[in-house]
Amino acid sequence: MVKPEPTPPASSPPAEAAAVPLDSTTRVIPIHPDLVEIKVPDGPLPSYRYHPVTCQPIKPRDYQTELKQLEEQYKSREAALHAQEQIAKEVKEKIETAKRKREEVQKFMDKKVKERDTEMKVVSKFQETKASDIPS
Q1: Composition bias, kind Pro residues: at what positions (predicted)?
Q2: Which of 4, 29, 112, 120 has the least CB density, counted as fewest CB within 10 Å?
């Protein structure tokens, strides 16, 4: 029995749009003053009209449901701006946490590589010594 493939939710990027690396040259304008690490293309649209992962233009009609939910959740402009600032802080913290974890993993990997190299030197010295002890 063949199961039908689930359809992606409206808020997910199209399947053919791949994530654009954060250091890509197409990324020029920060999406928020507090999130200068995340940039989108400099194009005819404002920065908030580009998807932050794929850098593809966002069509508001594709996100009508989400936009209505946000309008209901944040009745005033001030509430929306406050929520935007809070989310920007949370995203910045997550980016910093991920960066720290990456650095920790890199340090651990470097330490293990150094240990392996030392062990390989010891083994090769042992093998040389053992080989020279064999009478010819």
Answers
A1: 1-12
A2: 4
Instruction: Map residue 134 onto helix, strand or coil.
Output: coil
The four Cα atoms 113, 116, 121, 122 give a dihedral, to 10 degrees, of: 150
Residue pLDDT, tens place only, 52-108: 899 999 888 888 999 899 999 999 999 999 999 999 999 999 999 999 999 999 999
Tokens 């992962």 — which residue? 53
CB atoms within 10 A of CB 52: 20
Q: Inform me whether the pLDDT recorded for 7 exceeds 60.
A: no
The confidence score (pLDDT) of residue 102 equals 96
CB atoms within 10 A of CB 55: 20
| Rounded Cα–Cα distance for residues 90 and 93 (Å) | 5
Backbone angles phi, psi at 31, to 5 degrees: -75, -20
Tell me the two tokens of residue 41.
Answer: 């293309």
Give tens-digit pLDDT for 116-129.
999 999 999 988 88
